[in-house]
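User: I'm writing a tutorial on reading structure tokens. Could you give me a worked example: one chain, its sequence, then its tokens, then a sentence or two explaining what the tokens reveal?
Assistant: Sure. Here is the example chain.
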Amino acid sequence: MTAREQEYRELFMAEALEYYESMSRHLSELERTPDDVPALNELFRLMHNLKSNARAMGHTAIGEVAHSLETVFGLIRDRERAFAGPLVAVVFTGLDELGAMIRAVGADQPLPDAAALLDNLARVARGDEPVLPAPAPADAEAPAEEDARKLELSDLVYIQVRKLDKLLNLVGELVIDRDRILTLAEEIGHPALQATARHLFRISDDLQYSVMDVRLVGVGVLLNKFPRVVRDVATAEGKEVELSLGGQDVQIDRNVLQIMTDALLHLVRNGVSHGLEAPAEREAAGKPRVGQLRLLALTERDDVLIEVADDGPGIDTEAVRRKAVERGLATAELAATLDEQAVWAFLFEPGFSTAAQVTDISGRGVGLDVVKRALDSLGGQLRIASVLGQGTSFTLVLPTSIAVKGALLVELDGRPYAVPLLHTDTVLALRPDEFSVVGGLLLAHVQGQAVPVVPLRELLHAEGTEALPAADKTLLQGPQQVLVVNYNHRRLGLLVDQFLRQQNIVVKALSKPLDAIDLFGGVTLLGSGQVCLVLDVPALTRLFVARRA
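And here are its predicted structure tokens:
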């Protein structure tokens, strides 16, 4: 049995035992008050859930007993049978045997034979007399095993998300102070203090990742909600769509999944509404009438990828290019030089759409800016692949957790800044003669591509809506440290004073009024005690595009 299968079995056991204890309590209440409708409704609901879970896990025998008991509860609820007489004994016996079967699964033992029980449940369902065992003589001793009833507690504890959030924040504070203590210990050089600091580092590191692990959930808790979404949109659009799901057991931070819910909903709805053709159009194009939509989760190093792919007509790159020029997002000259990825990035500009008509479902491009906003808030990325006539895929690249981020520390004017690693492309040391100036822009050639370069200082000090000053190579003295960042398939070089180091950071939100500054995504505290601002690469890139000379 794999670790994942073992985890699912433990979850099933915990919930099943909880259902069993709840049903025992409600059944006792029903015996005292046969007209207790809420207790009866809850019994029916719990038994239905247990039946579904058991069948999903492959425990068909438990599912069969639960189904038979559910049928009896339904007859009682509909007043076709009275909860009285022999029926009471059969139901209590059935619940006890159900508990024994659940415990047998947990102990990895053979399940008890339920044939006699199922026969009795069928009898009471038909209104026949059940076959009950003869009562034991008054002086007879009961067998020792007669289930001394065991009282068991569930291994599953339900915790509110806000409590986990508070715990994670406290761990974040601990990690910040830990780094400060470790730095001080190294500066002081006392062996005992250094050993204690290293031990604190190991313990707090384990605690941090343990708390992060508790917050992980299977992506399936969200993906499994989409079959109904696809069915409703397809019906409204008069389309035939087959949805395939994959990777539901991939683990991700619950808050990351929550933030991406609306974005994923937009992508799926747009995939059905405008990513797939109508049946007649598909047949005319030599395709099957039924369109294919795939929703897949997978892992890539420390990231989680969620892919939404269709086999529709693909993205008409030239139509997007023309629309970008019409909207004033790029000049005709610039648009003509952009590659496919850069052109497709326009789809995620606010209000951008190539659809001739906007429907209630919305068009591909309409509302897709919500996808980029959600990704930016997490430090995620978007990958697009499309082949005209064959289909399109959007892949969301998400961090497994937002508690800790890898960052590159750089220095500017004696102050450290943190740049999330997710947006860092490469670092370079270039001589002044290795730069060129074209149209007032400073350019560096990186891996065969001309990348615009701007001093980070100019972006941080930009005021109003004035254009950034035109580049002047003569001002460059000595080797220049260039950090190349990448956002939305756009590369940008940032001139900094020096590179410090790479490390994991705990990002805290900025307090007022600094939270209104778009260029900073938060703040962290370094081991030295210095406050370090975290640069928002998407905001810096947008500022450069808006203010370039």
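What the tokens reveal: The CA atoms of residues 329 and 346 lie 8 Å apart. The first strand starts at residue 216 and ends at 218.
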